[in-house]
Design brief:
Mean pLDDT: 87
Strand content: over 45%
Oligomer: single chain
CATH class of one domain: Mainly Beta
Helix content: under 10%
Radius of gyration: 33 Å
Shape: globular
Low-confidence stretches: 1-78
Distance between the termini: 38 Å
CATH superfamily of one domain: Kelch-type beta propeller
CATH architecture of one domain: 6 Propeller
Number of strands: 44
C-alpha cells in the first residue's frame, strides 16, 4: 500500500548570481631608506709655542622613499547557471519525467522512503508551480514512460509493492486521468522503451521473474495490445535505447548473464529483427545515451568491471563503428544527460567514488572535450531530467545523502 506524503509548501524561486565579478586584492609595502654620512677633519698649527687645534665635523643625511608592490591577487567568480525552483509535492527517485505537448512536465511514480509511489504531478514552467494530478492504479518505480503520437503518455512495467509488474497505464493530459491498457507479456523493470516512427512503442530487455531479459514487445496504441517481436541477442537491464535518424533503435550496454555488455544491436521496425553492430570499447551499465545533432550517439559514464566510469564513446550510424572521445572529469553512474539548444550535452549528478554527486559537465562535440561547470545545490542519484520548451533543463528529485529529495533545479 502506498503511503502518501504531505504536500510541500510552495517556495519562491531562489536564483544564484547571474553576472561575473572580479575582485583584485593588492598588498603594498612602503620602504623608507635613511643614509647618514659623517666626515671629520682635524687641523693642528703651532706658532710661537702656541698650539691651536681645530676640529671640523660634517654630517650629511639623505632620506629616500620607495614604493614597492609585493603581491597582487585577482579573484574571478563565475556564477553557476543552476537555479532553484519550487519543490515537488513528493520526494522521489527512479521516477519518469515527460514533457507534454502543452509544455508542462509530467512526473510519475518512483520510490520514496521505502514506499512505491503511484502519485503523479505536473510542473508548469511559466509559473514554476507543481500541481497534483490523478494517481495511477499501480505504484511503480524503474518503469518507462513514452509519449504517443496522440499526446498521451504510456507507462509500462516497473517494480511495485508486490514485485516486478507487467501492467501498463495511459495518461490523458486533456482530462488528467489514467486508464488501464493491455498488460505486457513479461513483467519487467529497468527496461527501455522507444516510440517508433510508425507510432508503436518498443519495449526491450529489463529484469523480471528472477532473470535478465532479452525479450522485446510492441505496443499498438490503436488497440491497446502488446505483441511479441524478435529477441535481442543478449539479456540485459540498465541498458540504453536510442532512436536513430533512419528509424532503427540502437541498444547499448547493460548488465546481463555475461556481465557488463559491450555488445550493441539494432532493431529494424519493418522486419522486427535485431542485428548486431559494432562493439563498444568498454562494457558498462546505468550509463547515459544522447542523440547528437549530427545523428551520432554519445555514451557516457556508467559502471563497469573497474568501477565508476568517466569514459565516453561515440557511435556513428553510417559506419556502425564506435570511437572513443574525451573522458569526463568524474566517473559516475545513475546520472542524467540532456542535449542543449547549442548542441552541447549536459551530464549532471549520479553516484561516484566519493558518493552522490552534485557536479555537472558539458560535452562539446566540435572538440570532444568535457568542461566542468557549476555544481547543483543538491547531490542526487537517479534523478530525472527534462528539456523544457524554452531550452532550459529541469532536474527533479533523486536520491541524496539523506534519502529521496523533492528538490528541483533548472539549468538555464
Amino acid at each position: 500500500m502506498t503511503t502518501m506524503l504531505p504536500t510541500t509548501p510552495v517556495a519562491t524561486t531562489s536564483p544564484r548570481p547571474t553576472t561575473s565579478t572580479t575582485t583584485t586584492i593588492s598588498t603594498t609595502t612602503r620602504i623608507i631608506t635613511t643614509t647618514t654620512t659623517t666626515m671629520t677633519a682635524t687641523t693642528t698649527s703651532t706658532t710661537m709655542r702656541i698650539i691651536t687645534t681645530t676640529t671640523t665635523t660634517m654630517t650629511a643625511t639623505t632620506t629616500s622613499t620607495t614604493m614597492r608592490i609585493i603581491t597582487t591577487t585577482t579573484i574571478t567568480y563565475v556564477p553557476s547557471r543552476w537555479l532553484n525552483t519550487t519543490n515537488m509535492n513528493f520526494a522521489r527517485n527512479a521516477h519518469t519525467a515527460s514533457v507534454l505537448t502543452n509544455g508542462t512536465v509530467l512526473i510519475v511514480g518512483g520510490a520514496s522512503s521505502g514506499n512505491t509511489l503511484n502519485s503523479a504531478e505536473l510542473y508548469d514552467p511559466s509559473t514554476e508551480l507543481w500541481t497534483k494530478t490523478s494517481n495511477m492504479s499501480d505504484g511503480r518505480y524503474w518503469h518507462t514512460a513514452s509519449i504517443l503520437s496522440n499526446g498521451k503518455i504510456l507507462i509500462a512495467g516497473g517494480s511495485g509493492t508486490m514485485g516486478v509488474i507487467n501492467s501498463a497505464e495511459l495518461y490523458d493530459p486533456s482530462a488528467r486521468v489514467w486508464t488501464k491498457t493491455g498488460n505486457m507479456s513479461n513483467a519487467r523493470y529497468v527496461q527501455t522503451a522507444s516510440t517508433l516512427n510508425n507510432g508503436k512503442v518498443l519495449v526491450a530487455g529489463g529484469y523480471g521473474n528472477g532473470s535478465y531479459l532479452n525479450s522485446a514487445e510492441l505496443y499498438e496504441p490503436s488497440t491497446g495490445v502488446w505483441t511479441r517481436t524478435g529477441n535481442m541477442s543478449v539479456e540485459r537491464y540498465f541498458h540504453t535505447a536510442s532512436m536513430l535518424t533512419n528509424g532503427k533503435v540502437l541498444i547499448a550496454g547493460g548488465l546481463g548473464n555475461t556481465g557488463f555488455s559491450i555488445i550493441t544491436e539494432l532493431y529494424e521496425p519493418s522486419t522486427g529483427v535485431w542485428t548486431k553492430t559494432g562493439n563498444m570499447s568498454d562494457g558498462r551499465y546505468f550509463h547515459t545515451a544522447t542523440t547528437l545533432n549530427n545523428g551520432k550517439i554519445l555514451i557516457a559514464g556508467g559502471y563497469g568491471y573497474y568501477g565508476y566510469m568517466n569514459s565516453a564513446e561515440l557511435y556513428d550510424p553510417s559506419t556502425g563503428v564506435w570511437t572513443k572521445t574525451g573522458n569526463m572529469s568524474d566517473g559516475r553512474y545513475g546520472s542524467t544527460a540532456s542535449i542543449l539548444s547549442n548542441g552541447k550535452v549536459l551530464v549532471a549528478g549520479g553516484s561516484g567514488s566519493s558518493g552522490y554527486l552534485n557536479s555537472a559537465e558539458l560535452y562539446d562535440l566540435s572538440t570532444g572535450v568535457w568542461t566542468k561547470i557549476g555544481n547543483m545545490s543538491v547531490a542526487r542519484y537517479a534523478p530525472a531530467a527534462s528539456r523544457l520548451t524554452n531550452g532550459k533543463i529541469l532536474i527533479t528529485g533523486g536520491y541524496t545523502f539523506s534519502g529521496q529529495t523533492n528538490s528541483v533545479e533548472i539549468y538555464a
